[in-house]
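Worked problem 6 (solution included).
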Amino acid sequence: MKKKVIGAAIFLLLLVGGVAVLNKEKTAGSVDVLSLYGNIDIREIQLTVNGSEHIAEIKVQEGDRVKKGQLLATLHTELLEAQLAGSEAELQAQQQIVNKLKAGSRPQEIAKAKAEYSAAKSSARTARDTAKRLEKLLPKKLASPDDVETAQARASTATAQAEAVHQAWLLVVEGPRKEDIALAEAMLKAKQANVRLANQHLEDSKLISPSDGVIRNRILEPGDMVTPQSAILTLALVDPVWVRAYLPETELGKVAEGFNAEIMSDSYPDKRYQGWVGYISPTAEFTPKNVQTPELRTRLVYSVRIYACNPANELRLGMPVTVKISLKQKVNESTTNHCKVG
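Solution. The predicted structure is:
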């Protein structure tokens, strides 16, 4: 009987010791690897154009993968093209004015002004000579005082006209004023700015993809009126893809940005996706409402972003995933800031 009691006691001791060892191993394993639960998060862009017009064409469908710089949609451009043509015509006209002012007077214009001055000078000389002859005849009463006065007035007028023609000739020789050229050049710059503005309006009528991604929603259709506030398409940016998870306050000091991570999903249970901790929030928050575990709902957590390598586009927006982070890492040893190839 005593042997049976002793044997039972030994068995119980062994059983308790085994359970303790298992619990110790389990606890050690939980310390070495941290498990986080979150969802795949992808940034989205509401795409529109900087113009108000009807949509002429949309070149993509929902689900299409697009590249940065790809043309996605266009507006009607008839009015914009007419405005551009008018601005270009005004620019050409102003350019000719500037060219004319800078070129100065033509040789023929200078020669004409000189000839007019010579003629005016000759007429003035003749008028003065006539007035002098009449003045000599006045004492002999061969000319009346009125005739002399009229001749003198004509001589003065002809002399003034000759001087005016002389100054006109000098202006033709000198050419346009610098101030006139500067004014014409300033107007030319204004016309050039109008052409650039018209070109920009025409370019704004095109919807260009700002980044690589996937068309998620086609909100408007050809014929719809669009304004700068109206989104035409929704673009999902699939690179980078990250997991939005929440790190308990008790684990905050064990994880650092740059730590390697493994990401697993229920959709592909046999696959492990490479990742790394890219961001840890500097401020705490209460566990989000979508985390339903009673133990977690009242805890303070820190938002953490784990970037994921997604070469086959298998990780989709909103997909629930599990993240495993080894706590044996050191920050300066973490090198996976990019996805490995192969």
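Discussion: Residues 83-200 form one domain.
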